[in-house]
Amino acid sequence: MITRQEILNELGRTTQAWDVLVIGGGATGLGAAVEAASRGYRTLLVERFDFAKGTSSRSTKLVHGGVRYLEQLNITLVSDALRERGHMLRNAPHIVHDQQFVVPAYSYASLPYYGFGLKVYEWLSGKLSLGRSEILSARATAEKLPGIKREGLRGGILYHDGQFDDARYAVALLRTLQDLGGTAINYVEAVGLLENHGKVTGIKARDVETGVEFDVPAKAVINACGVFVEGTLAMDHQPHNQLLAVSQGTHFVLPHSFLPGNTALMIPKTADGRVLFAIPWHGATIVGTTDESVEGAAVEPRALNSEKNFLFDHIARYFGHLPRPEEILSVWSGLRPLVKKGNAKTSKLSRDHTILVSPTGLITVTGGKWTTYRRMGFDTINRACDVAGLPKAQSRTLDLKIHGWTTDRVEGELDWENVYGSDLPAVRALSAGNAELDSLLHPRLPFRMREVVWAARFEMARTVEDVMARRTRALFLDARAAMEAAPAVATLLTAELKRNESWREQQLADFSAIARGYICEEC
User: Fold this and answer.
1) N or C terminus: which one in the chain shows less Cβ crowding within 10 Å?
2) How high is the pLDDT of residue 347?
3) For all residues of the chain together, what is the average pLDDT?
4) What one-character DSSP code corresponds to residue 417?
5) ∠409-414-415 over CA atoms, to 5°?
6) CA-based Rg of the chain, rounded to a whole angstrom?
7) Residues 177, 74: contact at Cβ < 8 Å?
8) What ranges do the domains of the chain cover?
9) Is the distance from CB of 221 to CB of 339 less than 8 angstroms?
């Protein structure tokens, strides 16, 4: 596999313009890059941090149409997202799977109301439906949702939606891009735009690890920076109105015992107009999300007290008790890039995507959500073809199998390993000759030492945080356990990346500073 240094050497010396250059390594950027490479365009993606470092690793882990948009009568968005949900399940069955949800009803009137709405949700998915919705008795609802508050429970509605591991899907897209002949590199920042006769002709890039700068020519430059798109637009020096309203969503991670079983809970109407979920995920329970308007974008957003109080209030309301401080295993927040529409509240803004082309030819894509990443990439590359005059080529992504595709699944304690798909035998082979690599990173985590080595060799992991937050999901599942496991991870990475002891110590300090923000100190 080509090394990072070999990629940098190529970028530093090549004068041939890339057909498509994508700035941003989240769902949107990766989707656009895969779309471009699948059509045969010479494609490069640069990411200033790590792939899926921002919003794309901090979702509620759902592949869904969006029940709340149905109530807002945004039928087109829901229908499109449900179709894309079906394609994601078909193209990446090793990462995306069907998940049962139950909406508990505490009034008889809500049973037909939500029952009809979720039946429409099912109908809109057509042949790509994941399963039938049905109304449950109070007893059946309690059996599906052990631990739910039973006082006043009148019944429930069962329906199906998709679930996935967002960061692992992003890694699979990265590998798919490489399989298609595309090039991607993390920790390379676009610090400026190249222009010729008033048109963008590439970027001025900087290797974050060394500080070395170099020019990268390109026929089409795509700004896919999520909540940071305005920063890239500023480099274009073109007048534009503020594009985004940034919204923050926060999640608590609780032990699986808080909601035993395999069924997820959906609360259809919260105080701020959002839906709220409690979902089994990798042996834990995710509770979220919130919707708080925030000023600007942060690389490491932190949960606000108002968000914590909101989650505590709804946990108490539906479970009848609050988690103890030690049961809050991790707290993490993500930012949504919502396209502004007047003074509407962020909870009322649609997740439709927007594509803008500046007079210089810079293409900006923002908005949208994980489930529609492929459609966003499709639309963006269509626009890029027009802007840059690229030869027309047929899209292949509707049926493109994502790297690792397999329908074989591991059950039981090792089911986390399903995210590796067809790569799993090779991952396991790493510990065949070294029993130490078969060891768990931590007794409370499902990840093994061999996955650290795999991440460094084959998934472009460069830091302890890359491994703990996105190649494994340790930081998101149990922040304290992740901090305790970090020294062993740092030691393995130091050897794999050929670093020295001072690098290792700095990595531990950097990771500790980030991980402390995932611990709910005031809970």
Assistant:
1) N
2) 47
3) 93
4) G
5) 40
6) 23
7) no
8) 4-55+168-241+349-399, 95-164+244-335, 412-518
9) no
The CATH class given to the 95-164+244-335 domain equals alpha beta
Apex 358 CA angle, 354 and 360, nearest 5: 150
Phi, psi (deg, nearest 5) at residue 193 = -110, 140
pLDDT digits (tens, 9 = 90+) for 41-58: 999 999 999 999 999 999
Instruction: Please work out, in degrees rounded to the nearest 5, the angle formed at the alpha carbon of residue 95 by the alpha carbons of 69 and 59.
Output: 40
| Helix intervals (H) in 164-293 | 166-179, 229-235
Name the residue among 255, 34, 264, 79 with its Cα closest to residue 163: 264
End-to-end alpha-carbon separation of the chain, Å? 45
Q: What is the pLDDT of residue 239?
A: 72
- Which CATH number applies to 4-55+168-241+349-399: 3.50.50.60, 3.90.1150.10, 3.30.360.10, 3.30.1130.10? 3.50.50.60
Q: Give residue-wise pLDDT tens across range 169-179.
A: 999 999 999 99
Helix (H, G, I), strand (E, B) or coil at 364: strand
- What's the CATH number of domain 412-518, 3.40.50.970, 1.10.260.40, 1.10.8.870, 1.20.120.1770? 1.10.8.870
Residue 344 has pLDDT above 50, yes or no: no
Among 332, 346, 333, 334, smallest CA distance to 244 is for: 346
Q: Comparing 4-55+168-241+349-399 with 412-518, is the CATH topology the same? A: no
Instruction: Centre a 10 Å sphere on the Cβ of residue 34 and count the other Cβ atoms it contains.
Output: 31
Which residues lie across from 183 on neighbouring strands? 44
Nearest to 50 by CA among 380, 459, 393: 459
Task: Say how far apart CA 469 and CA 25 lie, in whole Å.
Answer: 15
At residue 240, the pLDDT reads: 72
307-334: average pLDDT = 92
SS (H, E, C) 411-458: CHHHHHHHHHHHHHHHHHHCCCCCHHHHCECCCCCCCEHHHHHHHHHH
DSSP H/E element including 279: strand 276-281
